[in-house]
Amino acid sequence: MSTTERRIVIVGDSIAGCTAAREVRARGHDGALTVIGADADGYYARPPLSKHVLKGDGAEAETWDLSDLDITAVVDRAVSVDTDRRTVTTADGTDVAYDALIVATGASARRIAGPDQMGENVLRTFADVRALRPKLDEARTAIVVGAGFLGLEVATACAARGVEVTVVDVDPPLQRLLGPFLSEAIARRAKEWSIEFVLADGPVGLTGDSVTGIELGDGTRTADLVVTCAGDLPETDWLEGTGIADARGVAIDEQCATTAPGVFAAGDVTYFRDASARAPFWSNAVAQGKVAAASALGVEPTCAPTDDYFWTEILGLPIKVVGPLPLQGDPTVLEGAVDEGSALLQWNHDDGRVTIVAFGIKKPVGLLRRLARDSAVSTN
Ligand SMILES: Cc1cc2nc3c(=O)[nH]c(=O)nc-3n(C[C@H](O)[C@H](O)[C@H](O)COP(=O)(O)OP(=O)(O)OC[C@H]3O[C@@H](n4cnc5c(N)ncnc54)[C@H](O)[C@@H]3O)c2cc1C
User: How many alpha carbons lie under 13 Å from residue 347 in its C-beta half-sphere?
Assistant: First the structure.
């Protein structure tokens, strides 16, 4: 079948889905291309939501225009897929036929409230930020559950607005990803921002209905605002019965192919068959969007399906990371000093690979990639 006759359907309207749509056209496909997306706010980037839009400093969501791609845009939720008949069914009952399907439904915020408990605040979508902003305007105190990058970005936004903020987690800040050396540096800096960290000795529960606080081993704490940043869960309900998804998400290979013929997947919803967990970061979603698009067309991808660049902005510091995570032990300091909030750091892993971190220091990503590549040692 020529690619003109091939009907490509993408389910998911964020970075993985939109990248795939753009790549499908860039690779010369001039046949039918449908993007099914459930977000009424359209196509937009999530990273600025927690860094700028939440702060309310005038920044609005960064949106994308796909009007030049000649797509059929369906604003609805996909509720099921029949991989034998090759159709996706949307919530309004419409069947959309495909020859190749790209699953890009990402993830949603993991919630920790009880089944009947109302008012849990999370941050995943533009609608979540719109709901949070006025609450942040009113709050004098806040609790953030989760000391991962998202929890720390939310805590930063609170502190920047003069809100007294406590962050609660079972692990020290960002330790799971960035290791003890950077975690301790971040904790020291958080003190200067008057952010308190509380180590929980087990899973944190929410109290109140609507939510007003948290339950810890030694009692409860309350605040004007409680925000849960406790990870995310792959959006796979609509794939039930197809065998392509499990509790970890959708398993893919290096071509972003799933176990069903003609079905590919990209972004936060995926994990690699030979890896144990998802790697839900922006650069991976972009890379996999491109690879899934090429595979759906039956042409060679122009890039690998992984990209180990990750960034965040916390406590007034831009942090860029290139290379494998998590990090263990102490780094070599290539430039600057961590406690001055400006350092270039290198970790050497046992397998010869290298991770470079620009901690508060402005460096182009291309330079970090080059350093990581040139410092790596072949172990073969
Ligand atoms: C606030 C925030 C800040 C972040 N900051 C960073 C950062 O600084 N650096 C970084 O590397 N990563 C960051 N990330 C992670 C990054 O945004 C994600 O890795 C990326 O958005 C994944 O893209 P995706 O397209 O795979 O999935 P998603 O962004 O989750 O999008 C999936 C889309 O599919 C739609 N969808 C879901 N189910 C259905 C269905 N059944 N039918 C139709 N549509 C459906 C959803 O509405 C959604 O729009 C951040 C994430 C958040 C939430």
Answer: 23
In short, whether 305's Cβ falls inside 6 Å of ligand 1 is no
Look-up of token digits 């398993």: 251
Can you list the pairs that 299-303 forms with residues at least 24 positions away whose Cβ atoms lie under 8 Å?
Answer: 299/3, 299/27, 301/255
The two tokens of residue 189 are 């800096």
The tens digit of pLDDT for each residue in 78-94 reads: 999 999 999 999 999 99
Please indicate whether residue 105, judged by its CB atom, sits closer than 6 Å to ligand 1: yes
Q: Is the pLDDT of residue 159 over 70?
A: yes
| CA 108 to centroid of ligand 1, rounded, Å | 8
Across 54-68, 118-132, 224-238, least confident range: 54-68
Kindly report the average pLDDT of the chain as a whole number: 95
CA angle 20, 5, 305 (to 5 degrees): 25
From the CB of 238, is ligand 1 less than 6 Å away? yes
Q: How far apart are CA 297 and CA 255, in angstroms?
A: 11
- Residue nearest to ligand 1 atom 50, measured at CA: 47
Ligand 1 mean position to 89 CA, how many Å? Answer: 22
Which CATH number fits the domain 8-108+232-297, given the four candidates 3.40.1190.20, 3.50.50.60, 3.40.190.10, 3.30.230.70?
3.50.50.60
User: Where do the domains of the chain lie?
Assistant: 8-108+232-297, 126-228, 316-375
CA distance 110 to 160: 25
pTM (2 d.p.): 0.96
SS3 168: strand
> Residue 172 contacts by C-beta under 8 Å, 6 or more apart in sequence?
147, 180, 183, 184, 187, 197, 199
Specify the residue with its C-alpha closest to ligand 1, atom 4: 47
Angstrom distances, CA of residue 90 to CA of 10, 14, 78, 231: 12, 17, 4, 27
